[in-house]
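Notebook, p. 212. Picked up where the previous page left off. The plan for this session was modest: take the two constructs that came back from the sequencing core last week, fold each one, and keep the raw output in the notebook itself so nobody has to go hunting through shared drives later. Recording the first one now, exactly as returned: residue sequence, then the structure token string.
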Amino acid sequence: MSHGFAKLFKGPDVFAGILLTLGVPMPHLMAWVTIGIEILGGLAILLGAYVSFISGPMILLLLVAIFTVHLPYGFSSIKLMSAQAGRAQFGPPGYECDLLYIACIAGLILGGSGPLSLTPRKDTVGVAE
């Protein structure tokens, strides 16, 4: 959700400009689609609602990010470039975190969203108490 809100607050046109530079077709539409998936998908994951439904678009979005942005920077998400005046300077992140997000979403798909989720468990639907 934080990634979607960051794009929304900076302005969807700013993100659309980045998408245009990357060669993404229909950048303004795709900016809004991306923001929507990140915000609504994050909320769905947080609440445990419609996890199986939203997982596909979220994983697709992460794969697009890997292949259009992060792949040239390698695997590691942390690249210490230098340290000056007691502050670390980092380079562009690799695709490590995106793979971690995909693994977490896959874990939710395979294991279910849990007993506190808003989506009823399949094994309890229609069972009398």
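Okay, moving on. Second construct, recorded in the same format:
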Amino acid sequence: MKGNVMARMISVMVLISLALTHFSGQANLLAPTWLWLAGFVGIMAFQATFTGFCPASKLMGSGKGGSCCGG
């Protein structure tokens, strides 16, 4: 559980930084940029803390059935 809280906090910080970048006018998130990649990673990490399903783990073939926790 402690690992999930840490990953959840990290993913929330990534998403907050993207939101602050957009709303401060430094970047337009409505245009296709590399910031969308950071947003995608943040959202996938956040959902993985609740569901236990990690698409990156499944894609790379590590873990059991795409589990981020390996268990």
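Notes on construct two before I forget. The radius of gyration is 14 Å.
Flagging for discussion at group meeting.
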